[in-house]
Specification:
This protein is an alpha+beta fold. It is built from 4 helices and 3 strands; from the N terminus they run H-H-E-H-E-H-E.
């Protein structure tokens, strides 16, 4: 693994991500190719979330930092478990999701015409 410049926040984050990936590969082997979520049942709790559900402690803390004019970017946001409840509290949420199966589940909850043209992201309600 190549060392990265950790003098910046982005460099530090990239180094931590690389360390986690290296450890996971060492323990479990390489990640299988393809979309890991494509085989989930349509009613899987990973794919279906209620944006109006009561917030757990973690979401309460995140929500306490959000103001109505904010734009929130949820990287790896999946079906919107975190971003959809936040979208009710801000101007816009951008869900960047590499899994097509997970991203497809967030799209029905977006406003018409607000979907992104790229498969790796979608704009959620907000």
């Amino acid at each position: 693994m190549a060392l990265r410049d950790i003098s910046t926040a982005a460099g530090y984050y990239a180094a931590r991500v690389n360390a986690v990936l290296a450890q996971r590969t060492r323990l479990r082997g390489p990640q299988p190719p393809g979309d890991l979520f494509a085989g989930l049942r349509p009613d899987s709790s990973l794919l279906r979330v209620d944006p109006h559900r009561p917030l757990n402690k973690n979401l309460e803390i995140i929500a306490s930092y959000i103001v109505p004019d904010d734009v929130v970017v949820d990287v790896g946001g999946g079906g919107g478990r975190v971003s959809l409840p936040m979208a009710l509290r801000c101007r816009e949420v951008i869900n960047v999701e590499p899994s097509a199966a997970m991203g497809r589940e967030a799209l029905p909850l977006t406003r018409p015409g607000q979907e992104s043209s790229t498969p790796a992201s979608s704009k959620a309600i907000g």
